[in-house]
Amino acid sequence: MPGELRDLNLFGRAATIYLSKRQLLRVVCLFWSVLVVRTTWADLYSCQETGAVSIDPHQSSVLDKDSAGIAQRRWLVDTDQGWHRAEFPGYRGSCQIENGYVVCRTENIAFGEATLSIHPNRTSFVVVYTDYGLGALAIVGKCNEQDALVRAQR
Predict the structure, then answer these.
(1) What's the rounded Cα separation, in Å, for the pair 114 and 101?
(2) Which is it for strands 135-145 and 124-131: parallel, antiparallel or unpaired?
(3) Which of 30, 41, 80, 84 is 20–30 Å from 66 (CA)?
(4) Is the dihedral of CA 139, 141, 147, 153 positive or negative?
(5) 118 and 143 Cβ atoms separated by less than 8 Å
(6) Is the CB of residue 127 less than 8 Å from the CB of residue 42?
């Protein structure tokens, strides 16, 4: 009987993992870094306008991209920092994932608000500017997800 207990005790020792304080610290740091890196990895997009519609209280019109007053606009989206038009530096607003869509909102623009939404397939987008009391501007276009090389350069 005592021999059987001793055999079970040896099995228990063999199944126990012994870690030094240094090894334990390494394991904890490894798990922590995996969690932090995954949660801080931002998606980056470059979105180019292909068409726009202007709506005001009196009329609506498709904006002709060949006219002198309309330029091809481009937006840069960083899901951690926000979004902005390429010609204006500095990210604004905030972005989050909602039902597969990347949705970015800015409410601190003069006399209105803006929302940019990237489709779940990550290739098309819409921007809606709402100018309180005057109308709205809706812009559609194509997006490209930025690759790792562009991320490293930023």
Answers:
(1) 16
(2) antiparallel
(3) 84
(4) negative
(5) yes
(6) no
Distance CA 43, CA 148 (A): 10
* C-beta contacts of 77-82 below 8 A and 24+ residues apart: 77/43, 77/44, 77/45, 77/46, 77/47, 77/102, 77/104, 77/116, 77/118, 77/143, 78/42, 78/43, 78/44, 79/42, 79/43, 79/44, 80/40, 80/42, 81/42, 82/106
- As a whole number of angstroms, the distance between CA 26 and CA 112 comes to 50
Return the structure tokens found at 138: 């809706």
C-alpha span between 114 and 106 (Å, rounded): 5
How confident is residue 153, by pLDDT bands cut at 50, 70 and 90? Answer: very low
Residues 6+ apart with CB under 8 A from 25: none
Full-model pTM: 0.64
The string of pLDDT tens digits covering residues 104-120 is 998 777 778 999 999 99
Structure tokens at 6: 């001793």
What residue type is 103 in one-letter code?
V
* Dist. CA 104–CA 143, nearest whole Å: 14
The pLDDT tens digits of the residues spanning 37-57 come to 544 578 999 999 999 898 887
